[in-house]
Recover the amino acids of this structure.
């Protein structure tokens, strides 16, 4: 289930990293390099494994993103999926992302160098936390 939520989050808010020089001085908190930091299920931390903690999201100020998700294959952590797409700030911490013809809209919270994404699935609240790199 966690990989499904991670993939949904990746598609819903696939993050593309850029250095501060590459972001064109964007003040949008969504823009930047993000790494999957931790997750919660109904408020209880569900620690990431070493491979999941390598998942990254790169959000560019030009409205594009790249998400790289990892999984374990034969005992080695390897890139499983790379997703490219576009994003738009809809205001009030609401963002739209589009990849492979699918568009998702999600509320995002920012605090210091962290970004929080909440998802409710079957009555269970999942919270994914990303940390700015």
């Amino acid at each position: 289930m966690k990989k499904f939520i991670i993939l949904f989050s990746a598609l819903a808010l696939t993050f593309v990293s850029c250095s501060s020089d590459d972001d064109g001085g964007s003040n949008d908190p969504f823009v930047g390099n993000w790494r999957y930091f931790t997750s919660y299920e109904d408020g209880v931390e569900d620690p990431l494994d070493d491979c999941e903690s390598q998942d990254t999201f790169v959000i560019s100020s030009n409205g594009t993103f790249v998400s790289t998700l990892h999984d374990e294959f034969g005992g080695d952590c390897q890139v499983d999926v790379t997703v490219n797409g576009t994003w738009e700030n809809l205001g009030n911490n609401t963002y739209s992302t589009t990849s492979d013809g699918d568009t998702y809209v999600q509320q995002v919270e920012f605090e210091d160098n962290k970004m929080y994404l909440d998802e409710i699935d079957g009555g269970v609240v999942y919270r994914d936390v990303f940390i700015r790199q």
Notes: The first helix runs from residue 2 to 12. The helical segments are 2-12.
